[in-house]
Specification:
7-stranded antiparallel sheet; about 525 residues; alpha+beta; about 35% helix; 15 helices
């Protein structure tokens, strides 16, 4: 049983403004995005600046070498659009290079059968073709109002500055120290003497920094030459050369060929609401399945009750069973993931919900020495056992659990998303239900207790739920209770924005120590 205090109360007020708002998992990145909004930038401009900034100050979660997806709302056109920039397996990847050990589980995010030397999890062999920068570039080309260079340069300054090692940085580095020590370039950045987590005395103020300066020239090149610099230029060649030198299959031709894809949103009605999600290779279709089941599963009252939570649990279990059977996604819901999410609304009401990731915490735990980029381990998204729906194959696109969402209900529009692997979709579904079914304010929705059902027969419930609700959940489920905490995130780590009339609100997970919603004015 956890020894955490049961008397402690945590609150994080939602930010409200007539100006735009950026809600992100890192305050400094949100501030940079908000400055873009203040200067007259579109929501997409702010998202570009926020993405590059958060890749510097929260590098283990995402960055230029990651992948992701976004949902956008265009006020002028009055429609939602989806943008997919997930990772791909390199064209030269050979599944035979990932022989199985015979053990049942690799022990990281996915319970695939274990691969020799964890080659699909750790090291350059796990690196997939990144999509973040091209995705941001395509969004900016369609919607951007400000020069691309001006949006990337704040991240260059952040990289030159580095960031302080507070308790949360120390905790995250310590959690990955053993594997970071395997790569000399990762160890040099994050560890002392190439093996010990960097941290201050527990009573001391942070006075050490993580040096991110080796990333600055790469960001400067992307700022000067545009988003395709990471795919077609000298920077791309340097990245491919580094991965090849460390034993990976990524090549310059893979980067040359990569293109993010605009998609028609998967849009559907839910009671009196309208929901828009990403249509392919994400959890968008799964959340649509959840809402279809919820519509007949319970009738909303004034507030969520035991019947409602039981209906949510049943809908999540059934939708995940369908996903796991058909899509081949078998992520272990107990494992931490290294995704980030941010949502933006500008003063005109344009919105974007962005989820991006390196996959595991610190990705492949490999730093490219020539570019300073921490690299993804997207190959782990594939089942190494042949003949499965999601088995390894060259050039194949990765199936992700990201679930950015745009919703419309009661003359309000909202953009939501979360980090947290397979916990993402349950969190986003419940937040959307709180807003659409019960008319909660954004602040109340983010503070309200949630459950997690990420596959399997166990419901993880916030122990702040009423005893009657826990009893209702327990009638048909095995229920485990826990408290919300900064680590691990038992119920995902969401961020969202909401607009009603000409007023905007923004909120982030109340237990996120860095997360904040910042107004651009």
């Amino acid at each position: 049983m956890s020894a955490c205090s049961r008397a402690q109360v945590t609150r994080k007020p939602a930010t409200q403004s007539s100006h735009g708002i950026v809600a992100a998992q890192h305050r400094r990145a949100a501030e940079i995005g908000a400055e873009v909004l203040k200067a007259g930038g579109h929501a997409v401009d702010a998202a570009v600046a926020t993405s590059f900034a958060i890749g510097v100050v929260e590098p283990w979660m995402s960055g230029p070498a990651g992948g992701g997806a976004a949902m956008l709302w265009d006020v002028e056109a009055g429609k939602a659009e989806a943008l997919f920039y997930g990772m791909r397996a390199p064209g030269g990847l050979d599944p035979a290079d990932f022989p199985l050990t015979g053990e049942e589980s690799a022990g990281d995010l996915f319970p695939w059968k274990a691969v020799v030397e964890d080659r699909n999890v750790l090291g350059a062999t796990a690196v997939a073709v990144p999509g973040v920068v091209d995705g941001l570039g395509k969004a900016h080309a369609r919607y951007g109002r400000m020069p691309w260079k001006d949006l990337v340069l704040p991240a260059v300054a952040l990289a030159k500055e580095g960031f302080l090692i507070d308790w949360y940085v120390a905790l995250l580095i310590a959690s990955a120290a053993r594997n970071l020590a395997r790569d000399p370039d990762a160890a040099a950045r994050f560890l002392d003497d190439d093996q010990w987590p960097r941290m201050a005395n527990w009573t001391a103020l942070a006075d050490q920094r993580i040096d991110m300066s080796s990333m600055a020239p790469s960001l400067q090149e992307i700022a000067d030459s545009g988003p395709r610099a990471l795919y077609d230029g000298d920077l791309a060649a340097a990245l491919a050369k580094d991965v090849e030198a460390k034993g990976g299959s990524l090549r310059l031709a893979d980067l040359n060929a990569y293109q993010a894809v605009w998609q028609n949103a998967l849009s559907f009605g839910y009671r009196d609401a309208q929901i828009h999600v990403t249509p392919h290779l994400t959890a968008g279709p799964t959340i649509a399945d959840v809402f279809q089941r919820l519509e007949s599963g319970f009738t909303p009252d004034t507030a969520p009750d035991g019947t409602g939570y039981a209906a949510v649990a049943a809908a999540l279990q059934a939708a995940y069973a369908k996903r796991l059977a058909n899509d081949g996604d078998n992520e272990d819901p107990r494992a931490p993931a290294c995704t980030t999410h941010f949502s933006v609304v500008d003063k005109d009401g344009n919105m974007i919900a962005v989820t991006q990731t390196l996959l595991s915490a610190f990705g492949s735990r490999v730093v490219s020495p020539s570019t300073g980029l921490l690299l993804n381990n997207g190959i782990m998204w594939f089942d190494p056992e042949p003949g499965k729906p999601n088995s390894l194959a060259p050039g194949k696109r990765c199936l992700m659990n990201v679930c950015p969402l745009i919703g419309e209900a009661d003359n309000r529009r909202f953009a939501l998303g979360a980090s947290g692997g397979r916990k993402i979709m349950p969190a986003v579904a419940q937040l959307a239900s709180f807003l659409a079914d019960f008319g909660m304010s954004l602040e109340d929705a983010f503070h309200h207790p949630r459950i997690d059902v990420s596959g399997g027969d166990t419901v993880v419930a916030d122990d702040a739920l009423a005893s009657e609700t826990l009893e209702a959940l327990g009638r048909d489920n095995r229920v485990v209770t826990t408290r919300r905490a900064p680590y691990p995130y038992a119920f995902a780590c969401p961020a969202g924005v909401l607009r009603e009339g000409d007023r905007n609100w923004g909120a982030t997970e109340i237990m996120s120590p860095w997360g904040e919603a910042v107004a651009g004015g």
